[in-house]
Amino acid sequence: MTTNPSPQIWLYDTTLRDGTQCEGLSVSIEDKLRIAKRLDQLGIPFIEGGWPGANPKDVQFFWQLQEDPLKQAEIVAFCSTRRPNTVAASEPMLQAILTAGSHWVTIFGKSWDLHVTEGLKTTLEENLAMIRDTIEYFRSHGRRVIYDAEHWFDGYKHNRDYALQTLEAAIASGAEWLVLCDTNGGTLPHEVSESVTTVKGHLSFVLCQKSMTNDPGQRTIPQIGIHTHNDCDLAVANALAAVMAGATMVQGTINGYGERCGNANLCSLIPNLQLKMGYSCITEHQLTQLTEASRFVSEVVNLAPDEHAPFVGRSAFAHKGGVHVSAVQRNPLTYEHIQPETVGNRRRIVISEQAGLSNVLAKARTFGIELDKQTPEAKQILQRLKQLESQGYQFEAAEASFALLMYEALGARQEFFEVKGFQVHCDLVEGKETSSALATVKVAVNGQNILEAAEGNGPVAALDTALRKALVNFYPQLASFELTDYKVRILDGHAGTAAKTRALVESGNGHQRWTTIGVSANILAASYQAVVEGLEYGLLLHSQAEAAVKA
Amino acid sequence: MTTNPSPQIWLYDTTLRDGTQCEGLSVSIEDKLRIAKRLDQLGIPFIEGGWPGANPKDVQFFWQLQEDPLKQAEIVAFCSTRRPNTVAASEPMLQAILTAGSHWVTIFGKSWDLHVTEGLKTTLEENLAMIRDTIEYFRSHGRRVIYDAEHWFDGYKHNRDYALQTLEAAIASGAEWLVLCDTNGGTLPHEVSESVTTVKGHLSFVLCQKSMTNDPGQRTIPQIGIHTHNDCDLAVANALAAVMAGATMVQGTINGYGERCGNANLCSLIPNLQLKMGYSCITEHQLTQLTEASRFVSEVVNLAPDEHAPFVGRSAFAHKGGVHVSAVQRNPLTYEHIQPETVGNRRRIVISEQAGLSNVLAKARTFGIELDKQTPEAKQILQRLKQLESQGYQFEAAEASFALLMYEALGARQEFFEVKGFQVHCDLVEGKETSSALATVKVAVNGQNILEAAEGNGPVAALDTALRKALVNFYPQLASFELTDYKVRILDGHAGTAAKTRALVESGNGHQRWTTIGVSANILAASYQAVVEGLEYGLLLHSQAEAAVKA
């Protein structure tokens, strides 16, 4: 269905406008500026910055960009058509857009007759005038205009003739792009395809007529864009269907952020268009920055990244099954639909219950340990792994604990300290806001027993502090370690408070981060185990680094 | 493209097999049984239970289902073809499948020549024999067979003739379904469409030839199924494209759980097929259970539900305040692509104080409390709610705690007991498998102070026991209460062990279940608070029931 072998698709990012409608997402002006710069680096040609005038944040955002403009991208201001029965030139809302100073303006207008008569409570003719006047107003001030046909696909279904008239009004007044919007997200790919094809055909016919009558109303040859939402889990498919039917602009957001179920995800669209369908969007080098850009944006908006996101997710190229893993290593292309590096992601071998020996060997290799499949050590590691996993351990996320397990099986686990036991005492008096916890630990280092106690606002914090106090004189490097994340999961909730608990602790030393695990019916014992292994692994990393320097 | 106005699409759920390949997801046998029962209620006709023999958990799961079978659904065992150069009858792997006792067996085999020669290291002819022998073996033991053509779309691209031969082998040996699998998830909808159309055409041709020659090899007329993965963000679109090209079985998982980027999400596929495309999958009533089923499965596998999930997500029908909201309320169909109730979801009005208040009133009504919008109590409840939610409380899942909060605001919270404080002492000696915890609680009932202590294998169990011991003489009904579920979530993991903890406790009295919440930087204080409110709410229910009997 593609008519051109490798045409350009123009990307239009609306993370900073439609994306911020996402429930749970909020951004400062500073955040918006950081994201805009990153999108510019990524090679997105159109970046919709917001609706200046609708809120003060967006006004300031555009002003700041006037001071410090983007390198390549066009920043676009977004705005509706003028209100019914007004004059464009005297609408403060439209003047605020001029003040924002962008070359490009996106005007959205109504395509669906019902929204005109019931929503705007005006006539169908007045809506056409609103579209024309608003676009002409911006054109007369030298702005270039993208026209967003809101609720396009619903309007097209209910009153096709009128919907097409709204597009004609936008062309006649000088819009350079007509963007068909599936605002409610309810359209299916074959419907998108049919509608885009019809629009293309209709516009060719209209343009042909105009050129024959030499109508001065026609100023530019508009192209088609597509704006989709994910309410049917089809936002990406719908955008691709539109492109195959002739659309040349694709609107979307980073990570698919957006109202309700989100917008079309640019992190999926770009690789599909470029790697699978042969379109040109951004450079190959920019494409290798995609995974990082996705994570950067999720960091800035402070939403946890989707680990299972296509192309850019942490699990997107993770391999779990046993037989499977050895095959992947022989010939990755038979098990991966693209090379992870092309989008800046990487292959990961996951350790789990379903692991075979080859997973274990592959994982060992990432820790610099070469194991032979035939050795008793390799088999012993696998057996121990399965035994621990049946008890509720899960090493997928706790790679440091897995490394310690491997060193132990190889007889190479260095003993930095030995834990003899711990006690925790917790005291809560009703009515007092804070509760205190007191922890006592007993550890042995080089045959010397150390007893140490500490307080904390929770029992695990107290345990952690006591342990560090006991060890820091022997291992001063502990001072630079910190506990960066702590997660608890109840494994069999149905056993009530007697259920087994799994604790995951992430630690860091300023350069590296590692995760350890503990499992016990006692929530404190599970947490303590993970904390202890976190310190041990940190000491191991330090001693490996020292050995490397000496060597 | 649909040839039939409202044909049946057969749903095939693989949450319990392919879904468990999802990184971060692990389930016990008990979890699998609960999910299977729920899928059965939802009306899924085929439920793939696992690969009995590949791990002991799946063997036990099938055995338990023999004791206590599903009501409607067919449970399906999954397994590969026999290994190269063996005899099916002497393969222990295949015998384990027979022992599992399911009527239906899904056999997966290689479609891609490269996987045969490089992966299996055997000949293309031997692979065809493996498919034939394995299916014939199960057919001769009275099993019905679904054939999963692994890596179908890649195989089809690389060596179409051979790929088609593998399907012919499966048909000739008696498979009733041929399922085309996009195992690597790299295929686009138009490619799926083209391939399914070709397969349909080819099979018609082959079947026509066989019937003319009266070949006994052909036993059944196979139908086409589709199995897709979400690596291109197109799993749902690909499955729909296959259905439009003639596939009649759709494989997927609840919430799209699965390896890497997941499988096709049944929670999106079912409403698309049924509400948008006019196919028949489950009953209308079952469809209204979809949202609940989605959340149930996410609870059981203990993964946070995706709030933005199409159809079933909490944000899927969320509307922001303002003009939009009043328009939605006037004519919802112009702003929502389906009625949320058809899939058991609901419209949500976000943010506005007014909307918050009406939510509170609606919620109060579910507890039989009629509140007036204008009263200071209603406003006070809303204010308290917002304050607590900013501290990390979340009452959506803890309705019993919310009810107590309402009674308190109304001055109607009955005081059954007063907690004066608690102490916990925990002692772990390294090398001893069990750790013990000792809890002491001080409560006042009718002005009388009671001090009680108890031991447990964890601190929360000890606290729970001590509290019951202290109260049971005053409230003998406590003897019938039990703690049925306990969950802990760390709210701000990045604060390390000092992070706030949210504990949810589910309690029951044999007839009813209720959930309470606690939040604190101290994991024990949060848990204790939820346990205390759980007992209090149980006593409240008991006293309400007694009052009702007397009245």
Automatic annotation (TrEMBL), chains A, B:
<dbReference type="InterPro" id="IPR002034">
    <property type="entry name" value="AIPM/Hcit_synth_CS"/>
</dbReference>
<dbReference type="InterPro" id="IPR013785">
    <property type="entry name" value="Aldolase_TIM"/>
</dbReference>
<dbReference type="Pfam" id="PF00682">
    <property type="entry name" value="HMGL-like"/>
</dbReference>
<comment type="pathway">
    <text>Amino-acid biosynthesis; L-isoleucine biosynthesis; 2-oxobutanoate from pyruvate: step 1/3.</text>
</comment>
<dbReference type="InterPro" id="IPR000891">
    <property type="entry name" value="PYR_CT"/>
</dbReference>
<keyword id="KW-0012">Acyltransferase</keyword>
<protein>
    <recommendedName>
        <fullName>Citramalate synthase</fullName>
        <ecNumber>2.3.3.21</ecNumber>
    </recommendedName>
</protein>
<keyword id="KW-0028">Amino-acid biosynthesis</keyword>
<dbReference type="InterPro" id="IPR054691">
    <property type="entry name" value="LeuA/HCS_post-cat"/>
</dbReference>
<dbReference type="InterPro" id="IPR013709">
    <property type="entry name" value="2-isopropylmalate_synth_dimer"/>
</dbReference>
<keyword id="KW-0808">Transferase</keyword>
<feature type="domain" description="Pyruvate carboxyltransferase">
    <location>
        <begin position="9"/>
        <end position="288"/>
    </location>
</feature>
<comment type="similarity">
    <text>Belongs to the alpha-IPM synthase/homocitrate synthase family.</text>
</comment>
<dbReference type="Pfam" id="PF22617">
    <property type="entry name" value="HCS_D2"/>
</dbReference>
<dbReference type="InterPro" id="IPR036230">
    <property type="entry name" value="LeuA_allosteric_dom_sf"/>
</dbReference>
<keyword id="KW-0412">Isoleucine biosynthesis</keyword>
<dbReference type="GO" id="GO:0016746">
    <property type="term" value="F:acyltransferase activity"/>
</dbReference>
<keyword id="KW-0100">Branched-chain amino acid biosynthesis</keyword>
<dbReference type="InterPro" id="IPR005675">
    <property type="entry name" value="Citramal_synthase"/>
</dbReference>
<dbReference type="Pfam" id="PF08502">
    <property type="entry name" value="LeuA_dimer"/>
</dbReference>
